Amino acid sequence: MRVPVSWLTEHLGIGEPVGSQELVDAFIKIGIEVDDVRPLDHVTGPLVVGRVAEIEELTEFKKPIRYCRVEVGEDQAADEADDAEEGPSGLKTRGIICGATNFAEGDLVVVALPGAVLPGGFEIASRKTYNRVSDGMICSARELGLGDDHAGILVLPPGTASPGDDARSVLDLDDTVLELVPSPDRGYALSIRGLARELSNALDVPFGDPAALELPEAEGDAWPVRIEDAEGCPRFVVRRVTGLDAGAPTPWWMHRRLLLAGIRSISLAVDVTNYVMLELGHPLHAWDTNSVQGELVVRRAKPGEKLTTLDGVVRDLDPDDVVIADDTGAVSLAGTMGGASTEITPESTDVLLEAAHWDPPSISRTARRHKLFSEAAKRFERFTDPQLCPAAVELAARLLRQYGDGSIQPGRTDEGSVEPLPPVTMPMNLPDQVAGVRYQRGVTVRRLTQIGCKVSVGTSDDGTALVTAYPPSWRGDLGQPADLVEEVLRLEGYDSIPSEVPPAPAGRGLTDAQRRRRTVSRALAEAGYVEVLPFPFMSKSTWDAFGLAEDDVRRNTVRVLNPLESDKDQLATSLLPGLLETLQRNTSRGFKDVALFHIGQVVLPSPNPVPMPALGVDRRPTDEELAQLEASVPEQPVHVAVVLAGQRERAGWWGGGEQATWADAVQAARTVAAAAGVELRVQAADLLPWHPGRCAQLRVGDWPVGHAGELHPKVIEALGLPKRTVAMELDLDAIPLPEGRPAPSVSAYPPVLLDVALVVDAKVPSADLATALTSGAGDLLEDISLFDVYSGDQVGEGKRSLAYKLRFRAPDRTLKVEEATQARDAAVAAAAERFGATLRA
Asked: Which of 462, 512, 455 is nearest to 488 (CA)?
């Protein structure tokens, strides 16, 4: 929210002038973020008020161009200038080229004369353009640094100043605009009233409430109103102003404040409602009374009902939308935007001023449903002061009477009522306990009183001093002791709370599971994989792309009620969806060789979930409630997954690269298992999204813990992945933690290296054959690795040759070749017995 410093300090009893930096420090101290500080005094050189005397339309150019004679005062127009002339009033004029069309002859404008420098270092000089000499520049608000409106020239209301007056004093360029960002729970801070009250607390200066008006007694209703939906609209107030001068200009002081706040001036009636919204924090809506047919009814929208809003869009209303209707149907989208049929027009002289208190959740849903994030909706969804409605319409009515010659009708409609906010009781020393600071006596009561609470002090049965706070009507966020504690701490200053790091208890370190997770992460990184943190939510369509059956257990997910992205509303039961999305994003940006890994939790809901108990904050949960809460949380095991695409080893001067294959995914699983201190068994499997002929099931003992291999071509095509993408996912929590991991023993004696090539049936897995060789070789076998696979005429149809390197070593002596040969022969015999293997000739 943009606020001028002069407007803020108007309601504070400050004896001496306060600098903008002091105000910034005060806001930061009490927890209101200051996003920007914009001084307005960025214009140097001559800047004057001018009156447009004549306008000549230059029609020979493609775009609208005007040559204007502007009166800038007797002393401002250079007598020696070639185009210096006298205007109708006898004042000297200057000729100025301007492309804007929103001003007319007789209007007061702001003129930067030659020698002036506007914000951004834009120097003004007399120059010839469009076949004329332009001796200055007529300025817009944006060019003067007063706002973002660059649609037209800044036109001052009549009587604001005289030609030749110094525009700096008229524009008050000594002011400063603060860009403030209050936290979302502080809706009252989206107003001058709320911000000034906060400053008065921070600076300990008196505060004058602009809403403290003496309201006259209402003599009947201003307009018939019926509230059908009391939940959506607890209170609705209407005031009527007749005989309004529809052409009356907005006074310059109001125009300026709206301009600096980022709101464009439209008409007096609309500007007054916007001004009151900024001043008091309560949005108003102005109706053209002559366009309203019958009584106003506050209700929910009917199915199929439509409404054309002020922005000209025809909107399909939802039955959850709160609307205001008359005899013709819905005429306003409550708390969000008015309807076009009752809009204030330049001919409107009879105006209904409406101030209502709306249900914040209803307004929030409507704004998001229709994507209408108006200034009104932004305040209503954060809670507005329900007791402010009569004062808001009264202030607006008085401004219309003062500046638009309107007559305030004696009636005032005030339908509905709002119950006071419930009191909150807490121990007197609770702020001290939370902050770890012993505050002075009376601080709690004083600070709660400052924010508007009525406070009473008492004692509990055990003698504890208690304070009961009755929140003011504008503080709907004060609902529990923690809220009161926060108010005391922030007004006392968060900087007064000591920052002490608690000492770490001795004798504690990483758990075995944490240590294993770090070891696995480090092992994969050393193997060339890059760790990523994918988006944890996924879409149902991903399972369709995976080709999973409707009854696949992986489709049984937990849904997110308020997802960050509407199409990704499920917690994943697998790490692959997020990891593959990250892979696709990288490859679409030109990275062809990618190796990624992620270690994280998946969510596996139970088929028969335990209902989650509703727990309050007034007491500690019982053991039974904690047990039920624990049982209701779905299982969340830690998984590790990798994906590879492109070349596993890149090409270079050393030779050609090597394409990643299913074997690399299996090797990644072996890397994880080695880091976890276990051995994996690998066997063929068939599970989507993997290719049925290139998928391996990973087992620890007889327990399956994951899968690895090449993804199915249809899955690759559906997800837009590179061809031959491979992936591995493993349940890390399913791998048992070894009770002890003895240090590896290294033999000082030399090894004996032997090779063996066995001919077996082509369907025999190489891993199973290696297992048979290992079991037959005994303890002397230190390592076994497959180095060659051959199939052809030499081994026969349906057969293949698998060649292994065997490394034998004895831990306590130099191994003899004869001993190694006997161990090799025993290994071959075991393979022959189990798989019918024969030595290849």
From this structure: 455
Do 811 and 778 fall within a single domain? yes
CATH of the domain at 184: 3.30.56.10
Are the C-beta atoms of residues 736 and 516 closer than 8 Å to each other? no
Spatial distance between the Cα atoms of 420 and 413, rounded to a whole number of angstroms: 21
Q: What residues contact 467, with CB distance under 8 A and at least 6 apart?
A: 425, 426, 427, 428, 444, 445, 448, 455, 456, 457, 458, 484
| CA neighbor of 68 nearest in space, from 101, 46, 45, 43 | 101
CATH number for position 105? 2.40.50.140
| Alpha-carbon distances of 31 from 81, 453, 486, 636, rounded to whole Å | 56, 19, 10, 37
**Mean per-residue pLDDT over the chain, rounded:** 91
Residue 103 lies in a domain: yes
Residues in the chain: 841
What is the model's pLDDT at position 16? 76
Render pLDDT for 655-714 as a digit per residue (tens, 0 to 9). Answer: 888 899 999 999 999 999 999 989 898 888 999 999 998 999 999 988 999 999 999 999
Domain count, the chain: 6
Q: Which amino acid is at 330?
A: A
List C-alpha distances in Å: 787 to 655, 663, 756, 770, 784.
20, 13, 10, 12, 10
Whether 656 and 595 map to the same domain: the answer is: yes
Segment 270-301, tens digit of pLDDT: 999 999 999 999 999 999 999 999 999 999 99
On whether both 51 and 34 belong to a single domain, the answer is: no
- Does 605 sit behind a cis peptide bond, omega within 30 degrees of 0 on the bond before it? no
Tokens of 751: 């090894």
Contact yes or no for 339/310 (Cβ under 8 A): yes
Domain hosting 437: range is 424-493
Is the Cβ–Cβ distance between 349 and 407 less than 8 Å?
no
Confidence (pTM): 0.69
Question: 248 and 392 share a domain?
Answer: yes
Question: Which are the contacts of 330, defined by CB distance < 8 A and separation ≥ 6?
Answer: 301, 302, 305, 306, 307, 317, 323, 324, 339
